[in-house]
Amino acid sequence: MNTLWGDTLEKTFYTKCKEEKMLGCAASVMFSDGSVWASAHGNHGSIPLTTDMLYDMGSSSKTMIASLIFMLEDEGLLSIEDTLYSYLSPIEDIPSGIRIKHLMGHTSGVFSYTNHPDFSTTINNDVSKFWHPDSILATFLNPPNFAIGTHYRYSNTGYILLGQVIERIENKPLNQVLSERIFNPLGLAHMYLDQYDTYADVKTGAWLSETSYYDEDFVSFMSSAWAAGGIVTKPQDCARYAHALGSGQLFEGNVTNRLFSNSNEVSGSESYGYGAIKTIYNNHVYIGHDGRTIQNAEMEYSIDSDFSLVILNLDYNYYYEVRRLKFKMLDLMEYIEATNDSLSAP
Description:
The protein has helices spanning about 1-20, 60-75, 100-105, 120-125, 135-140, 155-170, 175-185, 220-230, 235-245, 255-260, 320-345, and strands spanning about 25-30, 35-45, 45-50, 55, 190-195, 205, 215, 230-235, 265, 270, 275-280, 285-290, 295-300, 310-315. The protein is of the alpha+beta class and about 350 residues long.
């Protein structure tokens, strides 16, 4: 299907990138037949972008942390009903009684460290400083936002805590667990936990304006992201991962039931379950997650049509532009898959 439909995808992708005035963007698709298409437009500074460069997944990484938790549950090593302090020592401003499921679904009430008034200034003041998760928790927490389990509020801190739980159970660093349980089994040779894994691939930066391109190794921010959003990837590896997640290759049971056995509506068409977002768009159901660093990411898997789509964009704060591109590409992909089905019918 990538050979048959690649030109159509390329034209639509390029035209919409131009329409949205994007200075750098990559996309990839894994079709229902397992073939992969990928493309990149714009520049990495003065160098043309390619699909062999690394881009930020941002909070799309949370789907991997949730998947690791379900893998450990399948092996009897934990339950999502377990309390956090069954595995970690008490931490100031993190109350007792929080369960793993509360952290996964953002209903713990735990204050999100990225909302701390000092976070951005501190991170930007020394971009070369490496932030360990313990230092993040010791520096950027405030008291809880609400009582455990009573509301939904997105918290990056919850996923830092989940990363620590995974390390405690596995007795290994998180980047090693990700490699052994997800990256290597799925053949994702160009997916890494930034600032923890070493790699030779070119890592992209971000267009802060039409004339300003940020191309430094943002150690402080990417190390602070860790389990909350620190994974970097080539577009085609991200599409393969999204397909594996949505098609049920990572953990036992029905994916939709497992990820959304308890969910909260975040908009009229989106609900947040355990580390993933379910979107209903044009009568189709998608599983995925978005991500925001100084880049922008969108990742979706079509439950109905068995394809994945990822958009990885370098234009700072282009949230709505990237979403519009995503929906344009989803419409095209649904048409492609439906057309291919009719052509293949006897």
